[in-house]
Design goal:
Oligomer: single chain
CATH class of one domain: Alpha Beta
Largest sheet: 7 strands, mixed
CATH architecture of one domain: 3-Layer(aba) Sandwich
Strand order of the largest sheet: 5-4-17-16-15-6-7
Number of helices: 26
CATH topology of one domain: Dimethylsulfoxide Reductase, domain 2
Strand content: 15-25%
Number of strands: 26
Distance between the termini: 59 Å
Length: about 750
């Protein structure tokens, strides 16, 4: 399928973040000469952020691993793949034999959601390892939003997306798309889309403790107190009921449960009762409620600044409650559900009804936190490793993750990883986490892999599809990412170091096809499974390409293997390298509902039960404490792109932002080094005094702290910064979802 050329132009979707921007890549003499935005891309229309143009530097980075590393006498040395696989077999089989499969934990990092290989074969690896001890970046990111989507609408993919291209009023909480584009809202050029709202006479209101880059461009900035978002939304809901502004919409009302329960639950949250705890005055709350209700169309959007708080799940729920109460759920210009080309949980099964969503099928050994989406919260990972007894974690497999920088109380987690009996990491860098690994298995660079946004296009502001073949060939002897994951799972299953990934690939596609032909809702129900597999394989495709072809052909726009000749297939996408536009989001209720009742559950018991805790928070005000929040930058992507010089050079960005009032009270001057202390740790950082942050709040960026010995990150080490997660507390988490609190950490600051 890949026709590599030493000279020419390649088109692909940027795999670095959720925006999904199209790139035009010029190749000369087998090397990338230029990267710019693809002006003909059906989704991004030429937009590109500073990160997308650095795929060449990422590919050429001398610190990027090209061959496996094995730790010998405490030092990582480069080895051939055969030797690395033998070491993986030795280490995993030893732990499984002595302690069982549940003594191994797995961790999937944020980049996994952007990689086609991990999206299609990550599950193969996890099933092969066979442990219940699964962890991921979800519990320091989006888990509360997927949880509430599951409880309200039936699946964790049932997340209503703000229709920012058509709305007249956007209320945005805890999001800074000028720095990070969208999140659970895939949208190239999110800033341009916000500016279009203003250009058509609409309004953008940003709720954030910091006057972020987005807040500076918005119609209005509301500087909220961290952990106050749920109170703010509850008060809006209260006003909507009290002032007779509730209007759920004619097509929603027949499919809605729980409206009276919401009315009762919100009754005590009058704006005057919450204004001190959330930091937004009662008159402003009332005005915003009336503006939302009276706007021609409106949508509320909350992101990581709301999900990684003490009330992450309750806030995520109330976002959709307010959208429902104002008549903007499943409405153009409001919040809508996608219809992704590759299908998914909201397109399969009986329309309008399903099994519903359940979680808490198991609970962690430490703290008894619930399983969610098959995973346990990372808040307990360090203790699960360090606490002796039945079920203690003794080995780790990390896939594209750097939890030492991204997880709470990372100093403790760092010590925990050092105590493991065995660890293997799939990663392109020897970083702060993988330095603990006994074996590091490097996947090819992003330019050497095919790409399709399986996960992210399920949350896009427009239904599109775009497949990108690899731009550059694999290095000699380099396995593809999917082959690494498949073989890792096979070795864990006992197939040995010589296991052939093609066997796992054939089993995976056979299982996928077999499920579809047995599904009454599938467009290939009743077809001959072997015939379909043969048709897929006749192209010579293997791995993710073969899987994606099947998913497209059996998806909502698919050709159903000839039954709908004008439908989608991988061949269609390859013939349209700028992508295929499948249209704007449209209302999907009731067919999108997958709850057991066949109705929207506006008041799930698990969330109603948290309302008392929220009410208690309304009176728990401490005006003297400082609260720490994170922040993003357009030239940063968590921790793993800090080794690209063009992205990190210039004015230092790893500073503690602090309001002048708070600095004066502590005798702190601009540029001075200050000590920031929490219950669990302390860091020393230069202070940046600014009135772009509300008093009582300080901010450190996420993903820094590259001064650790034993890594190979020469550029990142030069611009090390400090790790904000030395300060975050593993004992602070949203009890509904188990998601860690990364925003709203009590700290003390003093001159260094």
């Amino acid at each position: 399928m890949n026709g590599f050329t030493k000279n020419g132009t390649a088109l692909r979707t940027c795999p670095l973040c959720e925006a999904g921007c199209g790139l035009e890549i010029t190749v000369k003499n087998g090397s990338v000469a230029r990267i710019r935005g693809d002006i003909d891309d059906v989704f991004s229309h030429g937009y590109i952020c500073p990160k997308g143009s650095t795929l060449k530097q990422l590919h050429d980075d001398p610190d990027r691993l090209r061959k496996p590393l094995v730790k010998r006498d405490g030092v990582h040395v480069e080895v051939e793949w055969d030797e690395a696989w033998r070491e993986v077999e030795r280490g995993l089989s030893d732990v499984i034999t002595r302690h069982g499969r549940d003594a191994i934990a797995t961790y999937m990092g944020n980049p996994s959601a952007h990689n086609l290989g991990s999206m299609t074969f990550g599950r193969v690896a996890l099933q092969g390892i066979g442990t219940r001890q699964r962890y991921s970046a979800s519990s320091v990111d989006q888990a509360p939003k997927q949880l509430t989507g599951g409880l309200m609408f039936g699946t964790v993919q049932s997340v209503p997306i703000p229709d920012i291209d058509h709305t007249h009023y956007l209320l945005m909480l805890g999001a800074n798309p000028y720095a990070s584009n969208g999140s659970l809202c895939t949208a190239p050029d999110f800033p341009g889309r916000l500016e279009a709202i203003l250009a058509r006479g609409g309004k953008v209101v940003v709720v954030d403790p910091r006057r972020s880059e987005t807040a500076q461009k918005a119609s209005e900035w509301l500087p909220i107190i961290p952990n106050g978002d749920a109170l703010f939304l509850a008060a809006i809901a209260h006003v909507l009921f009290a002032d007779g502004l509730v209007s759920v919409g004619a097509h929603i009302a027949p499919h809605l449960n729980g409206l009276d329960d919401i009315r009762a639950a919100m009754e005590r949250f009058a704006p005057e009762a919450v204004e001190r705890a959330c930091g937004i005055g009662a008159p402003t709350i009332r005005r915003i409620a009336h503006e939302l209700a009276k706007a021609p169309t409106a949508t509320v959007y909350g992101r990581i600044g709301t999900t990684t708080t003490a009330f992450g799940s309750t806030t995520s729920w109330l976002v959709d409650v307010v959208n429902t109460l104002t008549g903007n759920l499943d409405r153009e210009g409001g919040s809508l559900f996608t219809l992704p080309a590759a299908g998914g949980a909201t397109t399969k099964g009986q329309p309008g009804r399903g099994k519903g969503f359940a979680y808490g099928k198991g609970h962690s050994r430490i703290k008894g936190l619930p399983e969610l989406m098959g995973e346990f919260p990372v808040a307990i990972l360090a203790d699960e490793i360090l606490t002796a007894g039945d079920g203690q974690i003794r080995a780790m497999v990390t896939l594209a993750g750097n939890p030492v920088l991204s997880n709470p109380n990372s100093g403790k987690l760092d010590r925990a990883l050092a105590s493991l009996d065995f660890m293997v990491s799939v990663d392109i860098y020897l970083n702060e986490t993988t330095r603990h690994a006994d074996v590091i298995l490097p996947p090819p660079s992003h330019l050497q892999r095919d790409h399709y946004d399986v996960f992210l296009l399920a949350f896009a502001v427009r239904n599109v599809a775009n497949y990108s073949p690899a731009v550059l060939p694999l290095d000699e002897g380099q396995p593809d990412e999917w082959e690494i994951l498949a073989k890792l799972g096979m070795i864990a299953q006992g197939a040995g170091a010589n296991a052939d990934p093609a066997v796992a690939d054939d089993m995976a596609i056979a299982s996928l096809v077999g499920s579809a032909v047995r599904d009454p809702s599938s467009n290939v129900c009743g077809r001959d499974a072997e015939e379909l597999v043969a048709s897929l394989s006749s192209t010579g495709r293997r791995g993710p390409a073969r899987m994606i072809d099947f998913m497209l052909r059996t998806g909502p726009y698919g050709d159903a293997f000839g039954a709908a000749p004008e439908g989608l297939s991988l061949d269609v996408l390859l013939a349209n390298p700028h992508g295929v536009d499948l249209g704007a989001l449209r209302p999907r209720i009731p067919e999108v509902i997958r709850t057991a009742s066949g109705r929207i559950e506006l008041a799930p018991p698990q969330l109603l039960a948290d309302v008392d805790r929220l009410w208690a928070h309304a009176t728990a005000v401490d005006d003297d404490k400082l609260m720490l929040i994170g922040r993003r930058h357009i030239r940063s992507n968590n921790s793993w792109m800090h080794n690209i010089k063009v992205l990190v050079k210039g004015k230092p960005r790893c500073t503690l932002q602090m309001h002048p009032t708070d600095a004066d009270a502590r005798g702190i001057s601009a540029g001075q080094a200050v000590r920031v202390r929490s219950r669990v740790g302390e860091v020393l950082a230069p202070v940046e005094i600014t009135d772009d942050i509300r008093p009582g709040v300080v901010s450190l960026p996420h993903g820094w702290g590259h001064s650790v010995a034993g890594t190979r990150l020469s550029v990142a080490g030069e611009y090390a910064g400090v790790n904000s997660n030395v300060l975050t507390d593993e004992d602070l988490f949203d009890p509904v979802s188990g998601t860690s609190v990364l925003n709203g950490i009590p700290v003390a600051v003093r001159a260094g």
